[in-house]
Amino acid sequence: MALSGKLIGNVEISKSGDVFHDILRYKPHEVVAASPDKVHDCELHDGERGVTGSVISWHFTHEGKKKFSKQIIESVNEENHMIVFKVIGGELVDELYKSFVITWHVEPKGDGQVATWTFEFEKPDTSVPYPTSMMDYLCNLVKELDAHNNAK
């Protein structure tokens, strides 16, 4: 019996939502520049960078192991600074989960902004853990990217 789950992580950021949206959508090389020990590359396999239906893959180190995640951009919402990625390859879906969708969006909070990662996933059984380690990884990556962009 498959088990559906949802995990949400929030990070307060100093940059506006459009800056992060543009980086993730059009300039992933800036993620590599900000955190080369964590993120090594973002390849475009099909389509145009940042366009719905495009296929990309991220190469990264997580928990001391080199990994990759192949994703299709399912939707983009400029107004809400939102991008939805469906994971179609890599350890998350090849070894752990039956399905995995990652949503990124930024919204105002007081005088600042909050970046939110949302994972929606289907576990094959109860032995598969919740992806809390991956959520911590991505939230820390946002903090590093925010610090890197503030230093510019």
The beta-strand count equals 7
Which word captures the global form? Answer: globular
Main pleated-sheet profile: 7 strands, antiparallel
Strand content: over 45%
Total of helices: 4
- C-alpha termini separation: 49 Å
Mean pLDDT: 92
Strand order across the largest sheet? 1-7-6-5-4-3-2
C-alpha-based Rg, rounded = 15 Å
Give me some keywords for this one.
47% strand, 152 residues, seven-stranded antiparallel β-sheet, alpha+beta
Explain the overall architecture.
The protein is an alpha+beta fold and 152 residues long. Helix content is 27%, strand content 47%. The chain is built from four helices and seven strands. The chain has helices at residues 17-26, 29-34, 91-96, 132-150, and strands spanning 3-13, 39-46, 55-62, 65-77, 82-90, 99-109, 112-123. A seven-stranded antiparallel beta sheet has the order 1-7-6-5-4-3-2. Strand 4 and strand 5 form a beta hairpin. It is globular, with a radius of gyration of 15 Å. The N and C termini lie far apart (49 Å).
Question: Would you kindly provide a brief summary of this structure?
Answer:
The protein is 27% helix and 47% strand.
